[in-house]
Design goal:
It comes from candidate division WWE3 bacterium. With 337 residues, the protein is α/β, with parallel strands linked by helices. The chain has helices at residues 15-24, 61-71, 90-97, 118-128, 130-133, 160-165, 177-189, 210-229, 231-234, 237-258, 262-288, 291-317; strands spanning 4-9, 32-38, 51-55, 76-80, 84-86, 105-107, 110-111, 146-148, 155-159, 193-195, 201-203.
């Protein structure tokens, strides 16, 4: 029976992490440990010897995960975010997948929590839309089993010996440290790794609109940087599409004034985009029976394209700064998006 070492980086113990801890204690699978890495030394009564608290100083999430992995005694590392929590059978499902000794890493879906408030739920609906997430919708809602080459650390398992073999996470990126780790894993093994829909976690979303868009801006900038330096994972058409949309949206009228025949092409493209956007809004309305929600998601998808696309271009041109999220020193909760 494999032992799992669950690694959770966090700046300070907060309400999300406390929720996560309560769910981890309910896991059916018992052969695990939980290593939580905080900025500063803290005291917390877990009432469970399997929980270990480590402090690392104010370093980035990737470096924190490396600290956690160095303390791990399990054969399989399970990377989980502090603002996510697992289903009770999370490790049972993962253990079943790892019965195949050829599998070296595994990604599972991170769904919107069932008790999410309206703005959080609508942010989740945006991420679950193919128009916002394109070919990565399976990260936010269960998809079919497949082989993948890139996955976020909100629900990622790696055999410890393989993780150690590639030297762990890079420390100079955030976000994006998970993409670079996955690239190193795939290169070291000469093949992709597994996505399976059964090991489910629930991941809190940033509320629409401002917190959600702040997070999207970070993703856009780092993916733009990665498109420049890591073409193997980040030069996919879906990553460039929002930027192409922004460029076309802004330059189309000017070009059409210079070359009038382009008006038909520009207007045709705009109407097609609008039709697709409205169809997604209708899908959300039929799913949730909520007109307000459908409007929020429709606007949210459009703004996601604008913010991601513009920041992707910025990331191509300029290296993003590694800036950690701020926290409330009293509650430990994160500030902003």
């Amino acid at each position: 029976m494999n032992k799992f070492s669950i690694v959770i980086p966090v700046r300070k113990i907060n309400a999300f992490l406390q929720e996560n801890i309560s769910h981890l204690k309910e896991l059916k699978y018992k052969n695990f440990e939980v290593i939580i890495i905080t900025d500063e030394e803290e005291k917390y009564d877990f009432q469970d010897p399997r929980f270990i608290l480590v402090y690392s100083g104010p370093i980035g999430p990737g470096e924190k995960r490396n600290v956690g992995a160095s303390k791990a005694t399990g054969e399989i590392l399970a990377f989980l975010d502090d603002d996510a929590y697992p289903e009770k059978d999370w490790l049972d499902r993962a253990a079943g997948v790892f019965e195949n000794t050829e599998i070296y890493a595994l990604g599972g879906p991170a769904m919107t929590p069932k008790n999410a408030g309206f703005l959080e739920k609508m942010s989740g609906r945006v991420l679950e839309s193919w128009m916002a997430s394109a070919g990565t919708v399976y990260r936010h809602t269960p998809g079919k089993s497949m082989e993948i080459a890139d996955y976020p650390t909100v629900n990622l398992f790696v055999r410890k010996k393989i993780f150690d073999g590639v030297g762990g996470f890079p420390v100079e990126f955030w976000p994006g440290e998970d993409t670079k780790l996955c690239l190193d894993l795939v290169k070291s093994q000469g093949r992709k790794f597994t996505y399976d829909p059964s090991p489910i976690v629930y991941h809190h979303r940033r509320n629409l609109f401002i917190p959600h868009l702040k997070q999207i801006s970070r993703y856009g900038r780092h993916r733009g940087q990665f498109a420049r330096i890591f073409p193997e994972t980040s030069r996919l058409p879906s990553y460039f599409a929002p930027s192409a949309f922004i460029i076309g949206l802004v330059s189309g009228p000017l070009l059409s004034l210079l070359f009038p025949p382009l008006w038909k092409l520009y207007l045709g493209g705009a109407f097609l985009y609008l039709a697709l956007l409205l169809s997604e809004g209708l899908r959300i309305f039929l799913k949730d029976k909520d007109l307000k929600g459908a409007v929020y998601v429709t606007v949210g998808i459009f703004l996601t394209h604008v913010v991601y696309g513009s920041n992707f271009i910025i990331g191509i041109m300029k290296k993003p700064a590694l800036k950690l999220r701020g926290v409330d020193k009293t509650t430990g909760n994160y500030l902003g998006g």
